[in-house]
Amino acid sequence: MKHGLPLRNPYLRAMDRGRSQHTLVWGALMNEIETSRLIRKIRVWLALFIVGLMLSGVTAFPLEHETALLNRMFGVATVPTAGGEPDLHVWLRRVHEGIANTNRDYPFMAYGTDWLAFAHLVIAVAFLGPLVDPVRNKWVLVFGVAACLGVLPLALIAGPIRGIPFYWRLIDCSFGVIGVVPLLVCLQYIRRIEQTA
Q1: Whole-number Å distance between alpha carbons of 76 and 87
Q2: CA 35, CA 41: separation in Å to the nearest integer?
Q3: Cβ(122)–Cβ(108) under 8 Å?
Q4: Is 12 contained in some domain?
Q5: Is residue 25 assigned to a domain?
Q6: Of 61, 76, 102, 116, which sits 20 to 30 A from 122 (CA to CA)?
């Protein structure tokens, strides 16, 4: 007898140890399954985000062709119509003319948007780190959230200075608002992984 309690059967003690080890193994297995499931979800969200960044980058190269296509899609006349036209048509024609004239007279100015395109592609590459190891590289996601939130003041402050219509500034803001969603979802999943570790 130990501490006034009767000694338990050694067989029962061994069974208790076996049960507790089984519970530990089962719990660890369930944590591993949950972690794998969360990492798969993170990778899907990040893949979408990376594709969005790459598309934003690649589409910043052929701006003159894209604005011409946009004008055709919206049925924008090449010259202002006598009876008036929607503000959107006026804006789209002005943007296309500005890009076409600049490319014709000052082609070196397009070098700035080439760097903009390159920056999007480089940032997309940075998100390969969290794609491989999201927990270790979660700082990249925090950086991404800050960058997405920074889109809002940039569009709302610089937009009026540059003569960008309000509705177009809202479109620009939507990139930050939409872009932050997958990053916040991924950060939430990473927190859950950290809690199970």
Answers
A1: 11
A2: 10
A3: no
A4: no
A5: no
A6: 102
Q: What angle do CA 41, 44, 59 make, to 5 degrees?
A: 155
Specify the pLDDT at position 100: 97
Q: Measuring CA to CA, which residue among 170, 171, 169, 163 is closest to residue 94? A: 163
Q: Is 43 exposed, middle or buried (0-12, 13-18, 19+ CB in 10 A)?
A: middle
Residues 112, 59: Cα–Cα separation, whole Å: 14
CA distance 103 to 112: 12
Give the total number of structural domains in the chain.
Answer: 1
**In this predicted structure, what is the pLDDT of residue 84?**
87
Look up residue 89 and give its two tokens.
């048509």
Joined tokens for residue 106? 């000052």
Domain that holds residue 107: 41-196
- The model's pTM is 0.81
